[in-house]
Amino acid sequence: MRSTEIEAVLDAFLVEQQARAQKLISAFESAWRDTQILLAAQSDIFRTHPGRTEPGVELSAIESLMYESGRPLLFDVVAGLRRVKPQERALSGLEDYESAAEDLLSRLPVEVEVPKQEWLSVLTPQAGSPLLALSARLRHHPEVLPLRELLGCFFQQESNLRARLDGAVFVVLAKAVLLLLEPWQHVRREALGVLAGHHGGSFEEQRQRWMEALVALHHQGEDALQNQAAWAAASTERVAQFLLRHSEPFPQPQHQELLDGRQNLFRYWARQRRSVNAAVEVEYDLGQAALEGVSCGRAILLQLDQEQAGLLQELDTVIYWLQTFGLDNTADFPAPQNNLVSGEDHASDWQRRLESFAEAHIPQSCDALQPRKPLPVRTGAWRQIYPRKVFLAALDGIGHSRVLEGCREAEAVHRSVVREIERTREVVEFGLETAREEGQGAIAQESVSNALALAIYQRERTQSPRALVEQRLVEGLAGALFLTHFTLEQRRLGLVAQLIRNRGSAAFETARELGFHGTSEGVRRFTLAAGAAYRSALVKIGWEPPPVEALEQVAVRGYVDEVLNLRSDVYDLPMIYRRLFRLAPLQDPRFLVGRETEMGALSTARSLWDAGRGVAVLIVGARGSGKTSMLNCAVAGRFADIPVVQSYFTRRLTTAEDIHGFLCELLQLPAGSDVTGALRSTRRVMILEELERTFLRRLGGFQAIHELLRIISATSRTTLWVLSMNQHSYRFLDAAVGLGEHFSHRINAMAVTPEELKSAILMRHHLSGLRLQYPPPLKADPRMGRLRALLGLQQDPEARFFDSLYRQSEGIFRSAFELWQKFMDRVEGGVLYLRQPEEPDSSALLASLTLADSHTLHAIVQHGSLTVEDHAGIFECTLEDSRLRLEKLIALEFLEPDPLYPGLRIRPEAGRLVHMALYRMNLI
User: What is the dihedral of CA 498, 501, 503, 508, to 10 degrees?
Assistant: First the structure.
């Protein structure tokens, strides 16, 4: 190929290359100019914005913020960015530039055959470097040059060398997008802070800093475009220099390295674009969440207004009835017409609606990167933020607490109306009853007059709680949004950058007001703990005298009811409620909850016994765990078609004669009859409870249980034995006499799950017709609340209540039923209010138990109950010593008289404390 031909090919290539470069620069300039237009419009609005926000007590304050300031500063900006898409257009322009290179190369000859002198004569004038031309003359020149591959390598190298310039354009565009958001962020931060009850920020200072940043960004963008233009102008020279330096394509490893580097660059710029766009979308979504919160708040206010209107209408009806009392056709006192919704329900409904919005609109996670570097940065510079989780945590914390506070105050106002109506009813009913008994109508009229005065007074003083509730709704919503933005900003920028951006002191003040004072508090606590540890170490090594302990002025011994915080008064419950929670074994299988496996085992035992096998069943569980209820349901079900003898040991049996006498009496046999023969002669089911009463833990006290086990083994083919006892007695007798070896089936009545216990209680409660109000969560350190929310350990009031009830009752139905009734607080307006069964501090009470006390409790647990004589026989002491020991435990409220058997038993409420005491003494 002659020099004129190669020169023509290169000239055409360079022209096309210049056109590509200009097209890329045009794409960059177009994206930048459109962004500048948005920035200029934002600057005009921000420059004239008043900034200062007055505290508001109405939801319209937040709505006004979102429409008057949010629309021009946020929503219109986001719409403009979605229309202009500066980062996407710039990145797309660069991708088009890269793809056009392949088309340009395809039009070049694959190889050219050109002499060395002609090749140098064409390239030297364009290279502009005599030394490079001299170096090319000295090197070997191949006869055939792979022109297409050489220029392909040039494009690869060119793209990587130009990466810093391209990255600078993307950084400018990313900064511009984030800068577009800052005016709204300053306005929003100022307004939400004031509405949430925090201090106002330094708005004017922030506005001045934004104007300065805008000017600096303008210069940075112009510089980036000028650098691109300068690079494009020198492209001809760089092509000539490259061809003079290289006569062969790059080796494959170098080629792959350049390709991988370019792909990494595009991945980094695309990820940077996504992170910036995510920041825009999160800001937009949180703005929409603010409007949704306003809508939810107004729905709550509407419900409260309707509720109050209904109550006042009911009160007016009562007043009219009282005013017309004594006239003809006077009807009965008006029945209750309204059911109140608790403040917890209102606040939870508000929170649930916002949580549903967050689940549908706010992203779960996204990348966060402050655009500063044009080239890829280390992995640690990327931050992962979780906007949805942060927003939900803020709702669950400051948002829910503020809204709940307002809703509870509204509930208190409404309940006062209900209480006065009920009080009016009681006054009237009492007066009418007294008038009938004494035959004096004046008494009835006087009571009605008094009731009328009460009702009118209540009507006049009842004020709408709307304003207060709305203020709390504003504070809750504004506080949740403020906390969300504050947390996201801190996690996006980092603590140091946030302090610099918000002028340090203001950021610290905001953090303190939001509850983020854990750093200073932690330092204070660490200092105190370190000082205490230091002084303790000095005392131990003898360098300081031990501190003088203050003498306790009054020492009071604890009681079980006080430790467990149980009510001692008898609660006035409806008759049906007392009937539902009667502490008696079940007869109705409908209430037998969670016993499918146990009842199935009894059915299997019956089938094996019907097949002629020897079967004996032992049911093990604490008193009140449902053993008798299971047996009653089995008698009515699986054992209904066969004779059943069901009883329990009514007294302590210790000898073989005692067992024979008991069984003869039970089978209605003459004294001295052959019990074993009688049991073999007829097929029947023998159900005996309280097996722990067949022994006494002393020398010679096990004859009765030995004889009973012998009879069971001899008659188990004709008599299906079903016995029950408590688990502590079983463990003792299994070790002492091998009790477990004589039974083919052993059923554990203690295998009750928390869900089954909850179902058993709620099934009974729901039949009462009362609604439930669970206790609110106890006040705790807000930092621990945030930690529990972070770890997913938050519980709703219902789950928290039943978890605590299950722990304190140890899964025993009877104990749970008793504790359920003990933890009732009040019944108002058809609602049963519960108190939280707090975890008791039993250390002082358990410390008052001596070793002898623990042994006594252990013996009672093993035997079910003990009389004074039984206790004296076990511990070989005098009756007076036994009486004193038992009376001490009665005074501590650990023991009570057994209602069915002679002697004393462990109180069901104290069962858990007794087990803790015995466990500490290694007795169980």
Answer: -20
